[in-house]
Every structure is written in C-alpha cells, then in structure tokens.
Design brief:
Blueprint: H1 3-7, H2 33-42, E1 50-53, H3 57-67, E2 74-77, E3 81-84, E4 104-105, H4 108-116, E5 122-126, E6 129-130, E7 136-137, E8 140-141, E9 153-154, H5 161-167, E10 170-174, H6 200-204, E11 211-215, E12 219-223, E13 229-234, H7 240-244, E14 252-259, H8 265-274, H9 286-289, H10 292-308
Parallel strand pairs: 1-2, 1-5, 5-10, 10-11, 13-14
Antiparallel strand pairs: 2-3, 3-4, 6-7, 8-9, 11-12, 12-13
Length: 309
C-alpha cells in the first residue's frame, strides 16, 4: 500500500467501528440534530491531519474522527497533548484523560507557539455569535445600555479560539442555529474570521486561512471568494426558508444546496460511547439524576470499549 493510500480518509465499508453494533454502515434511524452536528464536524477532519480541538462538542467530533474515518489524524489540545486518544467527554481542558496514549505531552506555550508557526491543519471552535464573514464572539453580549464591563451576558471567553482562527490552516465553527446568534452587528470579535471580507484577512497578516465551514444543528455553510458565508447544505428535515429565518442578514444560498449526509449506525454508537451519560450530546438530565458511582461506572464501561479497540 502506498503512502497516499495509507493516509487516505476512510469512507463507507472501509471504516472500522470500535464498538459492537448491528449493521454499522447503514444509515442510523435514531439520532438527534446535535449528534448530526457532531458527525458532520468530524467529517471535516482528514486522515493524517493535525487537528486542534477543545472540549465539549469539538472534542467529541475529534475523538469520533480518530476512532473511525481518520485514524491517522493527530488530535492536539491546548493543555499540551499531541497525538492522544482521549476516550470521551471531559470536564475541562486540564483533564488528564485528554493525554491518553499521547505521542507528546508538552505545555500550553509549546502548543500555541507551534500553532502560530502554522503547524496545525485544522482547528474546531464554538461560538456564541457569528456574522456574515465568520467573525465570532464568545466573550460578551451587550445591548440595551449594557457595556463590555457590565454586559447583558458574559460568555466563556476566547480560550484558544482566537489563536485557532488566526493561525490554523483552516477553522471549523460549531454552534447552535439561532437568529440572535447569526447577527449583522456582532457585539465583540473574539476570533477574527474574514473580517470585512475581500483581502482584509491577508492585509491583517494572519497565517491561517480562517473559517472554512460553519456547522450548526440545521445546516452547513461555506465561504465565497469574498469571505462571505454561503448556505451549502441543510440537514434532513430542514429547508432553506427555515435556515433563512434564523439569520439576520440576506443569506447567500448556493445554487445547488444539498442535504447533509445522515450519520451511520456505527457513528451514532461511537458518539454515545464517547458521551454515555448525555453530558453534551442529547441534553438529557440523566447526568444529574444519578450518583457519582453509577455515573463513573457507566463512563468507564463505555470508554474501556473504545480503549480496547
């Protein structure tokens, strides 16, 4: 097998799933839109790439890609791990589970220095707001007389999103589709996308190419040559007018809008192994209704299934 064949991203029957599930390559009959979001984002990671991920949804998508269609991708976390195989959802970026089987365990300074050198192919971030040019806000929501120091809502903050958006080869944004979030007047630019469009990003001297895709629980968006967002696919059961209703500006729509591929039974099984107690994916209250012992037993049982691979 040639090097190119070894590093090709796996598709269809070539994907091997590390969990036992009947008919793993068939389309799943049971999945949430949030799970579809996670699978779609995982498909953005190609085999052999260095993928800079965070926690929450981006971690889940990275782990899914690593355990399925892109086994030779290397996951990078801002806490300092490179090439690890984290088994599932963690509580913070400093959780040592992120370092399972890591090829390198270093520190934040080294990771962000390497990122600024342009060593990472793709980064995945979340956002609270986004505008038509892919500039994102995860810092504050203002308005109604509020200010940065006394905002209407204070969001989690940048984390690594600014560094990822400015320096990674390309960036993927994952977020919920809401009109108030897809705004014409972003309250704060935490991570610069294509700025005002055109040559703005190049003029600013950013190393990375900026946002390549925005994936929501309704649709997938790409960017045109001027750096403006374009609707390219809607998720099953969602139509173009529904997406338009959740965007404040006059949204560009591709001439050939497709339907986002549905996840396979194997992909959904792996997702639910990564997040067995619904901490992130399905939004149930299960994690709050059980004691620590029951929670930890379920998590370890499922994670061990991935680790045994």
């Amino acid at each position: 097998m040639s090097l190119d064949e070894q590093s090709a991203t796996l598709t269809g029957e070539d994907v091997s799933y590390p969990v036992d599930v009947e008919r793993p390559h068939e389309t799943s009959e049971d999945y949430s839109l949030t799970e579809l979001l996670a699978v779609t984002a995982a498909h953005e990671i190609e085999n052999g790439e260095l993928a800079f991920i965070g926690v929450g949804m981006s971690l889940i998508s990275g782990v899914l890609a690593k355990h399925t269609r892109a086994p030779e991708c290397q996951l990078v976390t801002e806490s300092g791990y490179v090439g690890s195989r984290p088994p599932g959802v963690v509580q913070s970026i400093s959780d040592t589970v992120l370092g399972v089987d890591a090829l390198v365990a270093t520190n934040q300074l080294q990771i962000f220095t390497d990122n600024q050198r342009g060593l990472f192919d793709v980064g995945i971030i979340g956002a609270g707001q986004i505008d038509r040019h892919g500039n994102t806000n995860s810092t504050v929501v203002t308005g109604d007389g509020t200010t940065y120091s006394r905002p209407k809502v204070r969001l989690p903050g940048s984390g690594g999103s600014n560094d990822i958006m400015t320096s990674c080869g390309r960036s993927i944004v994952m977020m919920r589709q809401q009109e108030r979030a897809f705004t014409t007047d972003i309250d704060y630019v935490t991570a610069p996308g294509h700025l005002g469009g055109g040559s703005d990003r190049d003029d600013a001297g950013f190393r990375g190419d900026g946002p390549d895709a925005v994936i929501t629980d309704m649709a997938v968006f790409r960017f045109d040559d001027d750096g403006e967002m374009v609707l390219t696919s809607t998720h099953p059961g969602v139509d173009v007018p529904e997406v338009r209703d959740e965007v404040q500006w006059d949204l560009q729509v591709d001439d050939d809008v497709t339907t986002t591929p549905e996840p396979t039974r194997g992909e959904i099984a792996v997702l639910r192994t990564i997040d067995p107690t619904d901490t992130v994916l399905r939004g149930s209250d299960y994690v709050y209704e059980v004691g620590f012992d029951e929670w930890s037993e379920q998590v370890m049982e499922h994670w061990k299934e991935l680790d045994d691979r």
